[in-house]
Amino acid sequence: MYAHELAALRPRLPSPLQELTDDRFTRHGLRLLLKRDDLIHPELIGNKWRKLAPNLQVAAGRTIVTFGGAYSNHLRATAAAGRLLGLPTVGVVRGQELADRPLNPSLARCAADGMRLHFVDRSAYRRKGEPEIIAAVLDAVGARDAHVVPEGGSNSLAVRGCRALGAELRDHADVVALPCGTGGTLAGLAAGLAPGGRALGIPVLKGGFLGAEIRALQQEAFGACRGTWSLDDRFHFGGYARTTPELDAFAEDFTHRHGVPVERLYVAKMLYALLALADEGAFPRGTTVAAVITGRPFPTGSPLPHAASR
């Protein structure tokens, strides 16, 4: 059920693979490709399509309840899917204090797409995976039979859906890099790559906890850890939803050089990391690096918060 409806949305799969000529990489003997997952669908963008599609099929018309922060790309994509497919959606938003404030442009877009926003305090949100907290949320929103999707859309269904991303890149790249929030896309991508291929994750949150989450997701999805992958935690620029003038300038320059709009909270950090790693000699000469473009800039109408330091 819903497979026909999803197909009717006409996703662009496999997503395009674009080679760039950038002297900052070529001088190190590196070939740079962009995996344009941002072009899969105009509203269910990038890895959000890959993670949401299998969950939408399982939901089969039931309300979808999911979790996210105030700037969550996942919440926006889920809300858009609900509007496009006629599914009721509920977004459980971190931060009870936000309920009394005007909605930021990201949450306003969710509401405009028909998503009901349910705000919870940060203590309860930290326990969002516990059965009693989930049950309390479902009772509060009146949707006890809902299909619950975790923060960032990362569950075993999503991980298996993201395995196709690795399969699409099997014969094209030695290293595949992508920005990481909850780790579900990396868990699936690594499983889909050919033997010898390597996935490199750039976490956009600070904390160093993501490795355990990815191993747990792979265990749940596949029964074992799969593929070769690693994380570099140095490029979060202060944490989630944080950026700096340096990162903004880098993203603007990249767009000017290549005509590719660069989303700040995820994609810019990953591309910046690749340039830094190339300068450090992290990739042997002759390596082909593919960077997964997981989203596109969202017009916030106001600047994102800057971190004082990285």
Write the layout of secondary structure elements.
Elements: H1 3-8, E1 17-20, H2 23-26, E2 31-35, H3 47-59, E3 64-68, H4 73-85, E4 89-94, H5 105-112, E5 116-120, H6 122-126, H7 131-141, E6 147-149, H8 156-168, E7 175-180, H9 184-192, E8 198-203, H10 210-222, E9 228-231, H11 245-258, H12 264-280, E10 288-292
Total strand segments: 10
Q: Would you tell me the structural class of the helices and strands?
A: alpha/beta
CATH architecture annotation name of the largest domain = 3-Layer(aba) Sandwich
Arithmetic mean pLDDT = 93
How many domain regions?
2
Shape: globular
CATH topology of the largest domain: Rossmann fold
Distance between the termini: 46 Å
Question: Major beta sheet, specifics?
Answer: 6 strands, mixed
CATH classification class of the largest domain: Alpha Beta
> Helix count?
12
Order of helices and strands: HEHEHEHEHEHHEHEHEHEHHE
Across the major sheet, the strand order is 1-2-10-7-8-9
Helix content: 40-55%
- In terms of DSSP E residues, the strand content is 15-25%
Task: Identify low-pLDDT runs.
Answer: 300-310
Can I get a quick summary?
This protein is α/β, with parallel strands linked by helices and 310 residues long. The protein has 12 helices and 10 strands.
Key words describing this protein structure:
single chain, 310 residues, alpha/beta, Rossmann fold, 2 domains, 6-stranded mixed β-sheet, 4-stranded parallel β-sheet, 12 helices, 10 strands, 16% strand, disordered C terminus
